[in-house]
Amino acid sequence: MVKEKKDFSITPYEVGGQVDYSKLIKEFGVSKLDSRTLERIKKQTGELHVFLRRGIFFAHRDLNWLLDEYDAGNKFFLYTGRAPSKGSRVHLGHLIPWIMCQWLQEKFDVDMWFQFPDEEKFLYKPDITLEDTEQATYEDMLDVIALGFRPEKTKFLIDTKHAGIMYKEACKVAKKITFSMVKSSFGFNESNNVGSIFYTAMQAVPAFLPSVIKKKNIPCLIPLGIDQDPHFRISRDVMPKLGYYKPAIMHNVFLPPLTGIGGKMAASSGSETAIYTTDTPEEVKKKINKYAFSGGQATIEEHRKKGGNPDIDVSFQYLKMFFEPDDNKLQKIHDDYKSGKLLTGELKAILIEKINKFLSEHQKKREQAKKMIDKFVLKN
Amino acid sequence: MVKEKKDFSITPYEVGGQVDYSKLIKEFGVSKLDSRTLERIKKQTGELHVFLRRGIFFAHRDLNWLLDEYDAGNKFFLYTGRAPSKGSRVHLGHLIPWIMCQWLQEKFDVDMWFQFPDEEKFLYKPDITLEDTEQATYEDMLDVIALGFRPEKTKFLIDTKHAGIMYKEACKVAKKITFSMVKSSFGFNESNNVGSIFYTAMQAVPAFLPSVIKKKNIPCLIPLGIDQDPHFRISRDVMPKLGYYKPAIMHNVFLPPLTGIGGKMAASSGSETAIYTTDTPEEVKKKINKYAFSGGQATIEEHRKKGGNPDIDVSFQYLKMFFEPDDNKLQKIHDDYKSGKLLTGELKAILIEKINKFLSEHQKKREQAKKMIDKFVLKN
Questions:
Q1: Is residue A3 predicted with pLDDT exceeding 50?
Q2: Are residues B163 and B287 in the same domain?
Q3: Is residue B374 part of a domain?
Q4: Which of A60, B169, B238, B269 would be B176's cystine partner, CB 3.0–4.6 Å?
Q5: CA B323 to CA B259: how far, in whole Å?
Q6: Are strands A112-116 and A154-158 parallel, antiparallel or unpaired?
């Protein structure tokens, strides 16, 4: 378990406290996603996605190597995932790596492998059944499809459904991972169940399964939240031993919960801290108005005089991280808020409109996705 | 790891020393297979197989409960298995539980599930690949089919091939097994790989998979070598938690290696200690004559005078355990050998003829089995 001196903690199972991302880069041994690398991406894509321009993806492993391979004609594929869980609906924070993947698929014209490890939450949480998880998997697939992935270039892998092709490969990974490695990476102990101990091997499989199927070594790029990095720290060590490239990784920061800029938006922390993809416009309005932590002053008078603090204002941060891609417009909102010209209520109104516009479109596509699932799920 | 005070040791991965089966019954907490239970079997089958009459199956768990269920019209199914491994050919010792299963299938008219855990040896031995194991699995299936199982009532499960139906069920088992449980049952430590730690969950699955498929709770009977008991000690605890019966178990003693009556015949100990199902008549003759440990005296003169000791004579033990089902004939061989009338060479000649007759028939059926594999392997 990676613990950073009491200030904050990051593991695949917990994100707590105010996250210091510079410290995290050092702690995790990842590289900063710097302007040189971003320029290399821009050379291929013509433009940079807002998540790249604004540092939402802030770190990486081996991205320059991946771009070297791409330049040399060796296309990569994308891999990310989502662990379905009863009662854990998809929220805006989940969408960040997925939107990044969709954009990268489009710009680089590459395959996308999306894993739904439907056993993971079951193995880690006492009160979840595998039967519960089936419905959750279905709901999650709708959100992924709604983001616009191309069906002919996208494969959904569902662990229990595709174990017939995954388990054999997972055994090859598992043979190279000892209990003590898992123990130190995930903070496990002897009371962990043997399924949870094995699970990291299943999570590694999609990073080389396309290479197995196509019988050639294909580079892999995994966009993910930085908290999921430990899973791949182990598998990056293992994959060269099996004859495959280490997957490259791009790490994103956490979308903060509504209630304050520490930690990450989490489906498990209660519905007031997160905006879900299935929230109604009224729910969004109510949540933002009621819960979104404000950087403004206590009274309008004081706010007009002293101004607000956009750096700790969750509404502003959401606009910056996700909903206002126009740099000039964002700058104006920033300046107006800081000067006191823009009130907290007005800032929230801007965000509410943006989120609801996004969700209205997303929910429409999510409905259409119901007829498209078969096109995405890998044929067994 | 079950260690019996330095005299002998029994785990699923090692059998060493002279085995004291009475001690083992106590140590393992199993029940002696007594005349009362044998009579109950005989009531259903009309006769008792030589393995039952002569104590080759010597212990059990819950066999009386299983027979109660059978009497009440609740038929059981049989489950046993074989872990395929490159360089580990099937020998006579392997056949004992399988022959028992075939006999029980015939007499009780029940289904047989035969597991080929093709990942097990791969996970436990550094130098084995999964690709090597494919050929070994094929060879092993031929030996099983050759024993006369009924295709319409027999299903072969191959772990990597059938993981699509097994992994999900294995996760349910795995959630109930902690590392410390596996550690104490199998003598594992933190250097064990995570695949080997998970594996026992896969081994439990066939004991309830028919119940999953048929959506009703069906009793299970597992004939196996006593060294495999620890795998099922854990899963017997788990299965009621999943809503299934604990499987009943019948335990057989080990067929001793040619070289002496301690330990068990093992494919991994070198070809001189075991008779393989694919051995030629010449190989059998040579091995028995050269290696079969003799209870006879050093010279013919001495043998005629003092007589031999059938209790430690491997050839006599093979006749008793496997190849001479006629009690009168066996008694005569015993008495003649003990009195010195029958010489070691003559005793060996009797055994050689018996084994070669058995193998000649087995090998013929093994050839025919090549066209029957599809009838046995479970449809995915």
A1: no
A2: no
A3: no
A4: B238
A5: 18
A6: parallel
- Chain B, 116 to 135: residues with Cβ < 8 Å from chain A are 119, 122-123, 130
Q: What is the pTM of this model?
A: 0.91
Listed residue (B342, B332, B331) closest to B308, CA to CA: B342
Residue of A129, A137, A198, A242 to mutate, testing the B interface (most B Cβ within 10 Å of its Cβ): A198
Number of residues that make up chain A: 380
Structure tokens at B131: 């690709």
Residue B199 confidence (pLDDT): 96
pLDDT one-digit tens code per residue, A290-330? 999 999 999 999 999 999 999 999 999 999 999 999 999 99
Q: How high is the ipTM of this complex?
A: 0.90
pLDDT (mean) for B32-56: 97
Report how many domains make up chain A: 2
| Same structural domain, A6 and A91 | yes
* CATH of residue B75: 3.40.50.620
Cβ–Cβ under 8 Å, residues B293 and B313: yes
Which residue, of B253, B278, B302, is where some domain finishes?
A: B253
Backbone angles phi, psi at B267, to 5 degrees: -65, -25
The SS3 of residue A66 is helix
> Are both A241 and A291 inside the same structural domain?
no
Percent of residues, chain A, with pLDDT higher than 90: 83
Residue of B118, B161, B167 to mutate, testing the A interface (most A Cβ within 10 Å of its Cβ):
B167
B357 in the same domain as B238: no
The predicted structure's pLDDT at residue B24: 87
Average pLDDT, integer, range B39-67:
97
CA distance, residue B377 to nearest chain A CA (Å): 15
The pLDDT confidence band at residue A44, using thresholds 50, 70 and 90, is very high
Where do we find the tokens 């013929």? B364
Amino acid at A167: Y
Report the C-alpha gap between A249 and A226 in whole angstroms.
Answer: 10
Name the residue type at position B332.
K
